[in-house]
Design goal:
24% helix; elongated; mainly alpha
């Protein structure tokens, strides 16, 4: 058994056309089709459209950067106490 995930368009005639990978051999198969409509999320913030597109940040590890910045905040808080 193999699962192939892809996005397709269903035509006005209720037909779909699927291009299978080359390693699927000619023959008889049983298939299952799961219909899951693709919807645009209304909860998504517009800035998320830029994810992965800003070249200036491509070499920055965002998790490490956040840890570094938060560490600086902690240092400032400690120095304010004394």
């Amino acid at each position: 058994m193999r699962i192939i995930e892809t996005k397709i368009n269903i035509t006005d005639e209720h037909l779909l056309n699927i291009k299978l990978p080359e390693d699927i051999t000619v023959g008889e198969y049983e298939i299952a089709i799961i219909i899951n409509p693709v919807t645009k999320s209304t909860n998504s913030h517009p800035i998320n459209q830029l994810a992965g597109k800003v070249k200036a940040f491509k070499n920055i590890n965002s998790v490490e950067w956040q840890k570094e910045i938060r560490g600086e905040w902690d240092e400032i808080r400690l120095s304010d106490r004394y």
